[in-house]
């Protein structure tokens, strides 16, 4: 089962569920966050709660996507209480029982909706996509993390060292969705990453991910993240990206303004698409004067 969120024409949020080709509005809840909090309180699974609520009107999810009304599949009513993080590639010399490092990417304001511009970290021609999977979580009232499922994710990388392990270089937007796959992650996920320029596909590459090809299993990656008390605050949302497997970076491909980065994978619903937006140097950073009090 797949879940997503869309914005109605009146500006309100609606939860959409899909099994097969048909998508339906969910009755009883306007956001996935409210649905999940209700499930935690009742002690039931999301799938079971959905079945008890029943399906509403049919939704043309692809048309909503074309109209720019698809939202990230999980948000928080207070964006500062959403943590966007990503697992690193450091295996800590392969020491037994240790997992990779991870880094903070931002809060809910750094989460870009599917279909919206995703700004690269550096000048446009240096930007490259990085198809990834993300786990989506809500922290329960007792501080226990609950995983909803998994979604496609993308963050741009740059060819000038923006992947260096510095906190400042990691603080940048990412996009997740458009649909959330409920339940466990398949051991082997097969997908395609492509770049569209106008009507042409100018770059395309298949990728494999899932625990069959990951250095660390999901439990290890989750354990190295949620072991901190500060990351188990009741009611918070966490979107933890598990790291990329392929990229056009390093293949001498030069992106251009207007390119659309598209990622799709079997079992994850509609592709994640984001046009290449203005570089962060122009949009995400500016000189700030601090006023003493």
User: How many DSSP helices?
Assistant: 6
How many domains, as an integer? 2
| CATH topology type of the largest domain | Fumarylacetoacetate hydrolase, domain 2
β-strand number? 19
CATH class of the largest domain: Alpha Beta
Strand content: 25-35%
Per CATH, the architecture of the largest domain is Alpha-Beta Complex
The CATH superfamily of the largest domain is identified as Fumarylacetoacetase-like, C-terminal domain
Helix content: 10-25%
User: Spans of 5+ residues with little confidence (pLDDT < 50)?
Assistant: 91-96, 246-250
- Computed structural class: alpha+beta
Overall mean pLDDT score?
Answer: 85
Main sheet attributes: strand count, strand direction, barrel closure? 13 strands, mixed
Note the quaternary state here.
single chain
How much is the radius of gyration in Å? 19 Å
Distance from first to last alpha carbon: 53 Å
Q: What spatial form do the alpha-carbon principal axes imply?
A: globular
Provide the succession of SSEs: EEEHHEHEEEEEEEEHEEEEHEEEH
Protein name: GguC protein
GO molecular function: catalytic activity
InterPro entries: Fumarylacetoacetase_C_sf
Task: Describe, in short, the structure shown.
It comes from Pelagovum pacificum. By secondary structure, the chain is of the alpha+beta class.
Keywords:
four-stranded antiparallel sheet; 293 residues; 14% helix; 13-stranded mixed sheet; catalytic activity; Fumarylacetoacetase_C_sf; Fumarylacetoacetate hydrolase, domain 2; GguC protein; alpha+beta
């Amino acid at each position: 089962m797949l879940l997503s969120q869309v914005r109605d024409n009146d500006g309100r949020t609606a939860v959409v569920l899909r099994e097969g080709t048909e998508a339906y509005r969910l009755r009883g809840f306007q956001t996935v966050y409210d649905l999940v909090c209700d499930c935690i309180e009742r002690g039931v699974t999301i799938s079971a709660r959905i079945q008890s609520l029943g399906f509403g009107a049919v939704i043309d999810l692809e048309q909503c996507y074309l109209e720019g009304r698809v939202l990230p599949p999980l948000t928080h009513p207070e964006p500062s209480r959403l943590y966007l993080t990503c697992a690193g590639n450091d295996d800590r010399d392969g020491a037994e029982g240790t997992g990779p490092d991870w880094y903070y990417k931002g809060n809910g304001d750094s989460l870009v909706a599917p279909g919206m511009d995703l700004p690269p970290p550096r000048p446009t021609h240096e930007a490259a996509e990085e198809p990834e999977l993300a786990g989506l979580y809500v922290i329960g009232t007792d501080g226990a993390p609950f995983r909803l499922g998994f979604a496609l994710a993308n963050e741009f990388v740059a060819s000038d060292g923006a992947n260096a392990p510095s906190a400042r270089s990691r603080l940048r937007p990412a996009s997740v969705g458009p649909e959330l796959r409920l339940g466990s992650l398949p051991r082997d996920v097969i997908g395609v990453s492509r770049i569209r320029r106008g009507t042409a596909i100018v770059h395309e590459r298949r990728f494999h991910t899932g625990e069959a090809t990951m250095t660390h299993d999901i439990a290890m990656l989750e354990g190295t993240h949620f072991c901190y008390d500060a990351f188990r605050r009741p009611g918070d949302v966490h979107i933890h990206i598990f790291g990329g497997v392929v990229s056009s970076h390093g293949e001498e491909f030069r992106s251009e303004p207007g390119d659309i980065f598209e990622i799709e994978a079997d079992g994850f619903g509609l592709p994640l698409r984001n046009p290449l937006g203005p570089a962060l140097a122009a949009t995400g950073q500016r000189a700030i004067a601090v006023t003493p009090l």
